[in-house]
Design a protein that fits this description.
single chain, 359 residues, alpha/beta, TIM Barrel, 5-stranded antiparallel β-sheet, 11 helices, 29% helix, globular, binds (4S)-2,6-dioxohexahydropyrimidine-4-carboxylic acid, binds zinc ion
């Protein structure tokens, strides 16, 4: 048995409010605990998107009632909230900027709007961006002009990781995450996955892009699942939405990479606990840890997962390392496939921010 800290997934889509047939705070946080995570940070591209007090209250109410692990909510940068967003900063784990093609209505194309959001959001609260290709250069520059840190979501391409490396070498305050599907899958997997199921943003890249991520592991601050559940029927339908589930496979993929000598367990803990904890200024979780059987081998089967998502791009893959028990704030919350605390045991991380200086 090995003991890991409660892991942090800084990028998940839990679909509540608005699409709870895909996922809700119950199924999504159950999947999180089963995957070894005790904090998840949930994205704002829900229905309605989380852009103001009213929409945020809907998600807060649902999460308070149902979450099984601790969580933070992101506020979305929208077209209407460029000046009002900052007032909500203490209630969320950060702001999310969507600069490229994505799922939902939150994409921002207008340079002035983007600049205003970056200028108004408090520098002490995280600012995370979905920014691919040239959008990445734009967001790095705008954040640097405001002298504020920026966190880049799901980096997938060689040119992007090299740009972030160069920015870090220049002393620019930039951090980034990479998702397991960009480390373990490439466009060569598309024929096997099929056209709808292979849809994800950023899209699966080339072998060379994937290799560049592994070659620049030191530039990658976090691993983030980008858990983006959509049903198999939707993925196989005429307008397949982009996204892969990931909460229950991320740790297994990483521990398998550890066994294969591609990664050390220390590198894994830095990227799944230490760095996200620091970057997002998250509270300590006292008496919290995850117990793993590092030798247990298991086969990925979507039907055995707790997520509301009924498929996985890793179906049939054999992974090494299984979560046997999760202890959260002194209580056994997950043990051998069973959840031992009630719905709503999970806490919002945001109130803790009030203790760590003013925004
Ligand atoms: O593949 C994706 N799915 N990329 C995104 O940016 C959004 C996400 C989702 O919400 O489904
Ligand atoms: Zn994204
Ligand atoms: Zn995402």
């Amino acid at each position: 048995m090995i003991r890991l800290p409660g892991l942090i997934d800084p990028h998940v889509h839990l679909r509540e409010p608005g699409a709870i047939y895909k996922e809700d705070f119950d199924s999504g946080t159950a999947a999180a605990l089963a995957g070894g995570f005790t904090i998840v940070l949930a994205m704002p591209n829900t229905k309605p998107p989380l852009i103001d007090e009213g929409s945020l209250a809907l998600a807060q109410k649902a999460a308070r009632a149902k979450a099984r692990c601790d969580y933070g909510l992101y506020l979305g940068a929208g077209h209407e909230n460029r000046t009002s967003a900052a007032a909500l900063a203490q209630q969320v784990c950060g702001m999310k900027l969507y600069l490229d093609q994505t799922y939902g209505p939150l994409r921002i194309d207008d340079l002035g709007l983007l600049r205003d959001h970056i200028a108004h959001w408090p520098a002490q609260r995280a600012l995370a961006a979905h920014a691919e290709g040239r959008s990445l250069a734009a967001v790095i520059f705008l954040a640097a002009l405001e002298d504020r840190p920026i966190h880049v979501c799901h980096v997938s391409r060689k040119a992007e990781i090299l740009l972030i490396k160069q920015a870090k070498q220049r002393g620019i305050a930039i951090t980034c995450e990479v998702s397991p599907h960009h480390l373990f899958l490439t466009e060569d997997d598309l024929p096997r996955l099929g056209p709808g199921r292979g849809e994800v943003r950023p899209s699966l890249a080339t072998y060379e892009d994937q290799q560049a991520l592994w070659d620049n592991l030191d530039v990658i601050d976090c691993f983030a699942s980008d858990h983006a559940p959509h049903t198999a029927a939707e993925k196989d339908g005429p307008n397949p939405p982009p996204g892969f589930p990931g909460l229950e496979t991320t740790l297994g993929l990483m521990l398998t990479a550890v066994r294969d000598g591609r990664l050390t367990i220390e590198q894994c803990i830095e990227r799944m606990y230490t760095n996200p904890h620091r970057i997002f200024g998250l509270p300590e979780q006292p008496e919290t840890w995850v117990e793993i059987d590092p030798d247990a081998e298991w086969e990925v089967q979507a039907e055995k997962f707790f997520t509301g998502c009924d498929w996985t791009p890793y179906e049939g893959m054999r992974l090494r390392g299984r979560v046997t028990r999760v202890i959260l704030r002194g209580k056994i919350v997950f043990q051998e496939g069973k959840f031992l605390e009630g719905l709503g045991y999970g806490q919002d991380v945001a109130p803790a921010f009030q203790n760590v200086g003013t925004v």
